[in-house]
Amino acid sequence: MTHFDDLGLSGQALQAVAQLGYSTPTPVQEQAIPKVLEGRDLIAAAKTGTGKTAAFSLPTMDKLGHAKGNKGPLMLVVTPTRELAEQIGEVCGTIAKNTHHRILTVVGGVSYNPQIQALNRGVDVLIATPGRLVDLMDQGAAHLSSVEVLVLDEADRMLDMGFWPAMRKIIGATPQNRQTLLFSATIDRTIMSTAGKLLHDPAMVEIAHKGETADTVEQYVMHVQQAVKPELLKGLMKERGHRRVIVFCRTRSRADATCRRLKKVGYSVEAIHSSHSQNQRRRALENFANGTTDVLVATDVLARGIDVEEVEYVVNYDLPTQPEDYVHRIGRTGRAGASGFAVSFVSPETADALRDIQKLLKRTIPELELENFDMHEAENEAAARAQRAEARRDPEIQQAKKEQAARTRRKNKAREAAQAEEVNTRRAKRGNRKAAEKPASGTAHAARKHSNADHGSQQKRGNGSRNASANRAKTSNASGAQGGDFRPGRAHRAQVAHQRNRRR
Hints:
- There is one protein chain.
- By secondary structure, this protein is of the alpha/beta class.
- It contains 17 helices and 13 strands.
- The protein has helices at residues 11-20, 27-37, 52-63, 82-99, 112-121, 130-138, 155-160, 164-172, 189-198, 229-240, 252-264, 278-289, 323-330, 351-361, 375-393, 395-483, 488-503; strands at residues 42-45, 75-78, 103-106, 125-128, 149-152, 179-184, 203-206, 217-223, 245-248, 269-272, 295-298, 313-316, 340-346.
- It is elongated and about 165 Å long.
């Protein structure tokens, strides 16, 4: 068995190997590292998940010098996606802890200023996506005249994505005497034609052939109507578990819709696609890698080059348009010799895509059935939902619903009016009964009032007689005291005459 210390790496590189957690080299590492250390150009084709990043970063950084001052980069890695650039940057950063190189990753979706400032300070290893690197070159911030090693990672993908004009501009800005390393998932005529113009007497390392998938990945298909896919996905996750699952969708809108449906039933899930910012995509990947998120719903932006360990299984919710992308998708599971599982939902609209995939693989993918999922019942429910949705869109049905609602409102109002009238009638009847009882009680009350009045009058008269007698007694006493005549009239007349005489 070959070990890393058999490959010609220095002590500091071997320390980096230990920090990366590698024990024995993968086939591509075993074959590529010695040739890169020799300084040869290289064309390498290998299955996804076979350690290609370490295969070029360990030997190149082991023998790479350091840029003086604000110069550099000395090594340039160009890769098609931001996610892959971030992954390569992490591996190179770990190696740099021992080799003391300055590492910089430049990608789109983030601010230019920090990247420009870092370039001005100088950098040894630059990892970049083509679009952002060309922008920095146009601004005069990135200079490639000092590049000693050029790595083109996922070269076939960059060609497929239309990056060839940008790649030509980038390659043209580097010295012709550079060492060039080209890594690709597959080697075809296009790659060989491109390599012939860029590489000088390259060594060949081919681990995987076109259409070859990992032997450790179990592959299945499930034939299903498009409308049934949401329920089928829930049934699959209920039966096989929902931990560390990647679901691939063809479009961003479908990825978002699938994410919402899974969240609604309680799964920890995030979506990742090209509409999300770089920070959003990085955070989603980190959450998935550390187990915070159980399910990752993605478009093909995640299909290539993303190294996430221990993915339990992959679901092709939609089949890819390109058969080669199927290989990259299912390559997210069953990595580094581990067992994997992949299932593809095949709707009638994608039957041709399945035939192309099976032609590429040169095998027929068996069909999978779920024990606790009733496909017939799910199809009936989906048909009912579709009918309800169509009814919601039909203007005649909508008008009929409005008319029915109006009739219902009128009936409700009539019923409420009848109930109110009934209540008023009951109240009127109660009022009439009370009115009939009032005369008898009023007469008794009047009698009581009259009796009391008579009694009061008698009492008043009695009191008046007693008061008059008392007054007469007082007057008589007063008269007696003055003249001895107790008759009130005579006393009064005498008093008046007396006062008259005094005035005279």
